[in-house]
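SUBJECT: A protein chain and its fold
Encoding: whole-number codes for local backbone shapes
RECORD BEGINS BELOW THIS LINE
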Amino acid sequence: DLYTKYLASTQLEYAIPVPVMPHFNFTLLHNTGAAFSFLANEGGWQRWFFIVLALGVSIALVRWVYTLKNDRWLAIALCLVLGGALGNLYDRIMLGYVVDFLHFYWNDYHFPAFNIADSAISVGAA
């Protein structure tokens, strides 16, 4: 996750879509909010809120994983969520925003840009 965000940050121009295939672009964006840019334009306090929230959730997930003895699939799912949370937490602490660059669209509908960490969180939560 961090490497793909590094590549996106160094190889893409901000907010300039690079077509990859029909209905999919690489588009570098900086998300100061949460999923779907929730609370992105709130003046900065949300950075610290999401840092504390991510730390708390990460600690809870680590503790939960250590209690699992016979549920391998749940442990894998929780580790995906944890890995994604930590990847985005790193961005939020070091940069003040999360790097998003995967951008799907259909005609005039554009799904919010996301990253590999977001995908891991979604797959793990499913």
Observations:
- Helices lie at 2-11, 45-67, 72-95, 116-125.
- The chain has a mean pLDDT of 93.
- Residues 2-11+44-125 form one domain.
- DSSP finds four helices and four strands in the chain.
